[in-house]
Amino acid sequence: MTTILPSYVQGAWWTPTDENAVAAVDVCDASTGAVVTRVSTQGLDLAAALDYARTVGQRTLGELTFHQRAVLLKQMALLLTEHKQELYALSSRTGATKVDSWVDIDGGIGVLFSYSSKGRRELPNARVYVDGPVEPLSKDGSFIARHIYSRLPGVAVQINAFNFPVWGALEKFAPAFLAGVPTLVKPATPSGYLAEAFVRILADSGMLPEGSMQLVSGSVPSLFDDVRLGDLVAFTGSASTAEKLRASDSVQTGGVRFTNETDSINASVLGTDAVTGTPEFDAFVKQVVAEMTVKAGQKCTAIRRVIVPRAAMDDVVTAVQARITDRIVLGDPRAAGVTMGPLASTAQRSEVLKQVARLQAAGGQLVVGQTDAPTVLHANGTTAPAPDGAFVEPLLLRFDDASVAAVHEVEAFGPVSSVLGYDSLDEAIALVRRGGGSLVTSIATHDPAVAVALMTGISAFNGRVLVLDRDDARTSTGHGSPVPQLVHGGPGRAGGGEELGGIRAVLHHMQRTAIQGSPEMLTAITGIWHQGASARVGDTHPFRKSLAELVIGDQIVSDSRTVTLADIETFAQFTGDTFYAHMDEEAAAANPFFPGRVAHGYLLVSWAAGLFVDPAPGPVLANSGLENLRFVTPVSPGDSIRVALTAKQITPRETDEYGEVRWDAVLTNQNDELVASYDVLTLVAKH
After folding, report:
1. Which one of 171, 261, 291, 411 is the catalytic residue?
2. Predicted local distance difference test score (pLDDT) of residue 137
3. What is the pTM of this model?
4. 3-state SS of 269-315?
5. Quick check: is 654 catalytic?
6. Which of 28, 196, 300, 393 is catalytic?
7. What is the pLDDT of residues 107-132, one digit of tens each?
């Protein structure tokens, strides 16, 4: 008997008892119909698994900083890269070609790399993330506020679709892990064995902090009875299922965060200027065929509506047919030369053909491909039908009446698209909008006016818009490829959620809280020194201290230096900055911002460095930047300046022998008026 696919819960692998195994469901090879594994969760204690995440997983992840978690993400990515070929071999059983597997497996690994990099570059080496500037709440500065993000105390339950068993899981897992929230992965049954394989690689390595990732192979009927405030559920799948889940009491009144990414009637619009023979027309057709055939069209971002000028409909159909004939070989992904595999299951094939029949009944004419069982290339090199395989040819329908409701509402989740004609850009915009909210729409045009008109009309109905032309066609990531740096989601029918988007997705797993208090208290809570908090001026210059010795609030207050007219003129001639405010007394006095000739702001910043720098070699290795510079009070000849430099934030780098120190720099004049303020960034040795 075929073995049952295990779950990974409470730090161990679990399978049903023999008595419970009778309820297991067969999972079959998408090309041959052979049973790959069986799936059942009969007898699994889901509530205990969730509690394990909330206790053990929360504890182990909570002990780590953002940077430490980011380093682990990179190590996971490197480990999965080493095991890529075994994942590819399993992936072919789901119907994925090498290109499909690259999108799923390498794409998922790429998400881990991306979040590792972003975590170390954009987050502090801390456990709390500070959002936005200080908000003063009192005149004397004794009462201030800031917004902070702290991690949610629960578990991130991630319910994934069958089409991307690796990428779909890792694009949700990476930001949750970086935020410090443990994950419970629930893959779709038809391809869950591939998700189990990558989880096993990570679990067996000992790399995962205990409780940080669990896997449930099979159904979770009691899930919404077991989740509670502090937990999150991220769902990818059908809009109808999402609505049922959203209606649960735990979401409606229990405070569970629920996000979803659902089926989407995406579009691609051919601009009026992109006629046959232009690079934009060619790129458009290439993209349409790719979206129909990559993953056999089983992508939530795939193009379902091909919206083109009415006069170009015949040209587009002819070009799509020619490219499919020339490039697409349908068959078992293990056969050499195959460029498009089957759907995920025979049940999925039946569902796709059912939806195609609905489109045809609504007036769609099948102009490319046939719905009959196709002849395919088998793994042994023979060509014949595959009655037990889930194969469907690429299918293109034509709707001469673009107003038919079905084409904007019915999604055949497979290698299926429909061509619609438009007579004006306003009509094209209206057609895109009729999708009811999409994950992505692409525009093929080289005319900025066309791009602006379409973008203005459709952006509110899409989570992402790709503008495709001759300048970016070669480097574009494509219509159907979400990238970690950009949000993935869409309004309306697409679910209203947002995934990915860099650090935005991390913050989704955290709670933003407004913190009010004294500078001393906010310094303690945030790990960032605030004006008004205690500072320490000691005998040792702060630049002589390594990261191990330096403490937030360490400060140096410089001596004063007087600015002369000769200084201003020397700086002007040396730099070439002879702006009239520095060189022409009459013109400067006529300026409402200056009393007369004044010192250059950058002269003052340069002098400030001279006032606070300790010149000898030491722990400070380099100045890496200057941020948030503001000039407040002009400095006239005869005025003097001094600088107070305070260690504001200390960020050790996990993989280097140095870290970054942010210093608060404040320049004042002889009357203690604020002249300028800014942050100085330095790289400082750890020891």
Report:
1. 261
2. 92
3. 0.89
4. EECCCCCCCCHHHHHHHHHHHHHHHHHHHCCCCCEEEEEEEHHHHHH
5. no
6. 300
7. 999 999 999 999 999 999 999 999 99
